[in-house]
C-alpha cells in the first residue's frame, strides 16, 4: 500500500508530467508546494475561465479541484496516468473575483491500493476565506 506522507514525485516532476500528458491545459495551472499532507495548485484564471457576472466559473473551479487531487495522488504513487475520479462533492461558497488567480489546497485523507480520498479548499487571491470546498475520491488502477 502506498505511504500517505511519502513524496514520490516533487513539484518539478509533477509539472513535467502535466506538460507531457495534459499539454492542452497545463499552461492554465501552476504547481505550488508539495507537502507531506498534500499540495497547492494555482489556476491562472483568465477570460476563458469566467462566467457572466465576472466570476470564475464552477467548471473552472471543478477542473482546479480535480487536477489538484490527481496531482496530489501522483505525488505519492508516481506517474500513473490512468487514475480516475470516481466521486466528487463540491460546495461553492463565495464568488471568486475575475482577474485573480485561485488556488486549491489539497489534503490527502486516505491512500489505499485501489482508492484515494482527499479534501480541499479553494481560495481566491482576493478573498481571505475559502470560495469553495470539495471532497473527491479517485480510483487507482491495479499495478500490472
Polypeptide structure, described:
- The structure is a single chain.
- This protein is α+β, with helices and mostly antiparallel strands and 144 residues long.
- 22% of the residues lie in helices and 37% in strands.
- It has 2 helices and 8 strands.
- The chain has helices at 11-21, 58-77; strands spanning 29-34, 38-43, 50-51, 55-56, 84-92, 102-111, 115-124, 132-139.
- It has a 6-stranded antiparallel β-sheet.
- Strand 7 and strand 8 form a beta hairpin.
- 32% of the residues are buried.
- The mean pLDDT is 92.
Key terms for this structure?
alpha+beta, six-stranded antiparallel sheet, 2 helices, 8 strands
SSE arrangement:
Layout: H1 11-21, E1 29-34, E2 38-43, E3 50-51, E4 55-56, H2 58-77, E5 84-92, E6 102-111, E7 115-124, E8 132-139
Antiparallel strand pairs: 1-2, 2-6, 3-4, 5-8, 6-7, 7-8
Contiguous low-pLDDT stretches (5 residues minimum) are none
Q: Average pLDDT value?
A: 92
Query: What percent of residues adopt helix (DSSP H or I)?
Result: 10-25%
Continuous helix count: 2
Counted beta strands: 8
Tell me what portion of residues adopts beta-strand conformation: 35-45%
Largest sheet: 6 strands, antiparallel
- Give the distance, in angstroms, between the N- and C-terminal Cα atoms: 15 Å
What is the element string, with H for helices and E for strands? HEEEEHEEEE
* Shape label: globular
Question: What order do the strands of the largest sheet run in, or round the barrel if closed?
Answer: 1-2-6-7-8-5
Structural class: alpha+beta
Radius of gyration: 15 Å
